[in-house]
Amino acid sequence: MAELTTLARPYAKAVFAQAQDSNTLDAWSQQLSLLAACSQNADLAVVLTHPSLTIEQQGQALIDVCGDELNDAAKNLVAALAENKRLTLIPEIAALYEELKAQLQNTVDVVVTSAQALSSAQADTLAQALKKRLQCEVRLTSEVDESLIGGAIIRAGDLVIDGSVTGKLSKLAEAMKS
Questions:
Q1: Three-state secondary structure of 11-25
Q2: Does this UniProt record's set of keywords contain Repeat (predicted)?
Q3: Euclidean distance between CA atoms 43 and 170, whole angstroms
Q4: Distance between CA atoms of residues 63 and 164, nearest Å
């Protein structure tokens, strides 16, 4: 995966720079999201890596699947990726682009996985606490995983806070073994 990130980073930075210059950050987010979703389709993935197709045919197949929703700049990106045999990097490029955009906008996406659904008051309180700790705007999404028994796991980029009962039991079991 580190190799994919290394290969995708220059493309993501180039798209991000172009989006900043043209003030089209959100439009590029939509274009890259669409391209990533289409390129991850199992049937299309076979076409994008099929050895009997030319690079132009592979790129055109992706453009055709996305249809009229792609603008000319996104079509040019697909053509450049196809020419360099990098169409498989599109999901990674999209993810890196979103990271760059979040850094610029000083925001962070936080996923809270809890044993029970969070109330809106709990979500607001948690978002405010995380905003204070991380010193940036927080976009909070929540998931339910009943196997946690209680508590929650908070993921914000590289930061993971495990306050779940399952996590605490695992730490206790590890401490008892050593």
A1: HHHHHHHHHHHHCCH
A2: no
A3: 40
A4: 44
Task: Please state whether the predicted TM-score (pTM) of the whole model is above 0.85.
Answer: no
Q: Which of 138, 49, 36, 46 is nearest to 95 (CA)?
A: 36
Contacts 24+ apart (CB under 8 A), 122-129: 126/154
Q: What is the pLDDT along the chain (178 residues), one digit of tens a residue?
A: 568 889 999 999 999 999 999 999 999 999 999 999 999 998 888 888 888 989 899 999 999 999 889 999 999 999 999 999 999 999 999 999 999 999 999 999 999 999 999 999 999 999 999 999 999 999 999 999 999 989 999 999 788 999 999 889 899 999 999 7
What's the CATH number where 20 sits?
A: 1.10.520.20
Cβ contacts of residue 80 below 8 Å, gap of 6+?
Answer: 11
Rounded to an integer, what distance in angstroms lies between the CA atom of residue 156 and that of residue 134? Answer: 9
Domain edge (last residue) among 70, 102, 134: 102
**Whether residue 96 sits in one domain with residue 131:** no
Residues spanned by the domain of 59: 2-102
* Nearest 10 degrees: Cα torsion 65, 68, 73, 78: 10
